């Protein structure tokens, strides 16, 4: 079989502007009803780098991640304050559409969620249809997205088979391919390996390393080794008893794991609690 390697991004019409983008949260607070779950969260997530969000269960990491692409507001009781800047533009500014923010800032979830009866090829293209993005050369886009997600070689001869027939790790890479097909500027990942075996986990980590030059990544993980392996920066979240979650400390991953400034960070990354 002849291979076409698509080095330049395949052209799509109506997609995000090209390239990775920086994200910055400023003084973010979040509520469910009148329950304040996050407060005073400010964090810079540089373009083309991987930022890991770490911290014990319930400290607001997933809530923060969902605020970064306007999914938090889909929960009926949810509200928030603060700003989220995508390359300097507040995604919550008046007149900015949530769907536009979600197109530029993609998301991969804990449990792989391909459309099980839909073909592998159509799964990759499903995000385009939902976002109203068009592509004149769909075959090239399918190949490039699967290649970037590290799945092409395993599925290129069975693109018409259902997505549900793949293994869990392959399904997660299919979901990454689906997110990449719309060519987002940022990819958010909420514990993307927690349902996977160690081999699939390493394969996803390899994929993260391969795509990080082209798309900014923010990943929630409970796995400290994973945070160390995949991220350039880490933010440590913590919520006291009856207190909202806050960032205790953030910085280069080497510093957070090697020489943290706060004793709570030291204790957490060394497995003393959480
Ligand atoms: N839909 C919801 N309605 C009400 N409260 C919620 C909702 N989702 C989360 N919460 C609450 O918000 C707080 C933060 O939850 P969140 O899931 O963001 O934490 P987390 O750090 O991601 O936890 P985990 O690591 O267990 O996934 C918790 O107190 C949780 O109970």
From TrEMBL:
GO terms for biological process: phosphate ion transmembrane transport. Residues 23-269 form the ABC transporter domain. PROSITE patterns: ABC_TRANSPORTER_1, ABC_TRANSPORTER_2. GO terms for cellular component: membrane. Pfam families: ABC_tran. Keywords: ATP-binding, Nucleotide-binding, Translocase, Transport. GO terms for molecular function: ATP binding; ATP hydrolysis activity; phosphate transmembrane transporter activity. SUPFAM superfamilies: P-loop containing nucleoside triphosphate hydrolases. PANTHER family: ABC TRANSPORTER I FAMILY MEMBER 17. This is Phosphate transport system ATP-binding protein. It comes from Amycolatopsis endophytica.
């Amino acid at each position: 079989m002849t291979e076409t390697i698509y080095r330049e991004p395949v052209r799509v019409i109506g997609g995000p502007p090209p390239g990775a983008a920086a994200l910055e949260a400023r003084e973010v607070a979040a509520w469910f009803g009148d329950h304040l779950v996050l407060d005073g969260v400010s964090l810079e997530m540089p373009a083309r780098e991987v930022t890991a969000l770490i911290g014990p269960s319930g400290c607001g990491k997933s809530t923060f991640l969902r605020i970064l692409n306007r999914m938090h507001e889909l929960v009926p009781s949810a509200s928030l304050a603060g700003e989220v800047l995508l390359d300097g533009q507040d995604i919550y500014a008046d007149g900015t559409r949530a769907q536009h923010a979600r197109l530029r800032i993609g998301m991969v979830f804990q449990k792989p969620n391909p459309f099980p009866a839909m073909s592998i090829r159509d799964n990759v293209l499903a995000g385009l249809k939902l976002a109203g993005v068009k592509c004149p050369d769909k075959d090239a886009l399918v190949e490039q997205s699967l290649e970037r997600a590290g799945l092409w070689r395993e599925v290129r001869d069975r693109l018409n088979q259902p997505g549900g027939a793949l293994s869990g790790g392959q399904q997660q890479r299919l979901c990454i391919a689906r997110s990449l097909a719309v060519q987002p500027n940022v990819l958010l990942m909420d514990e993307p390996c927690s349902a996977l075996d160690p081999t699939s986990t390493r394969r996803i980590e390899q994929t993260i390393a391969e795509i990080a030059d082209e798309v900014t990544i923010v990943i929630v993980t409970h796995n400290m080794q994973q945070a160390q392996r995949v991220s350039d920066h880490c933010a440590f979240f913590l919520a006291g008893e009856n207190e909202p979650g806050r960032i205790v400390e953030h910085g280069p991953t080497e510093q957070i794991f090697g020489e943290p400034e706060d004793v709570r960070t030291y204790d957490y990354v060394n497995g003393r609690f959480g």
